[in-house]
Design brief:
Elements lengths: L1 E9 L24 E13 L4 E11 L2 E3 L10 E19 L3 E19 L13 E18 L2 E3 L2 E3 L2 E17 L1
Antiparallel strand pairs: 1-2, 2-3, 3-5, 4-5, 5-6, 6-7, 7-10, 8-9
């Protein structure tokens, strides 16, 4: 088995020394390029002896972040992700029988985020007609079966059968709340 965890924190990334400050960017750290978040991954496996192996895995990430404002156009948007999440789980069984081997895998993922559009660079007010909150979610459930037969020698060559079957179900939701 294995487990990992991590985190990130950044006030923002520095702009090039060649950057010339303008009314949209002061030239120090890139405005709204901050990030903070955490993640973990857990994975466990077990040998089933000569029959095969089984593995289970799950993970999660959350990383709210800023979205830098464009500095080279006259159209400026002031955005911020207050939520940025991914979660997943999967299991896989591999097997090796006398005449047939392969694997069976199933999984589920959930990705979602919330984006806020603000009036100005302070990213605190939402009073103008172009401000909104946007929620997005994307879920996927699926599986895969891989089967492979043992090779059979024939007078004119070798015969081996392979089969892969995939199935997926996806759900997508996006919603904009305009103010």
């Amino acid at each position: 088995w294995a487990a990992t965890a991590g985190g990130e924190f950044s006030l923002g990334f520095p702009l090039s020394h060649n950057f010339k400050p303008n009314k949209y960017e002061d030239g120090d750290l890139r405005d709204a390029s901050d990030r903070k978040g955490g993640n973990f991954l857990v994975k466990a496996g077990r040998s089933l002896g000569t029959w095969g192996d089984i593995e289970i895995m799950a993970g999660w990430t959350q990383s709210p972040r800023g979205v830098p404002t464009g500095v080279s156009t006259d159209t400026h948007r002031y955005w911020r992700y207050s939520a940025w999440r991914t979660a997943f789980a999967s299991t896989r069984l591999t097997f090796d029988a006398n005449a047939l081997n392969g694997q069976i895998q199933i999984w589920a993922t959930d990705q979602s985020n919330t984006l806020h559009a603000y009036d100005d660079a302070s990213r605190t007010t939402q009073t103008q007609s172009n401000t909104y909150d946007s929620t997005w979610q994307d879920d996927e459930y699926g599986g895969r079966i891989d089967l492979e037969s043992m090779a059979v020698e024939l007078p004119k060559g070798t015969l081996k059968a392979l089969l892969r079957a995939d199935f997926r179900y996806q759900y997508h939701l996006s919603q904009v709340d305009v103010y």
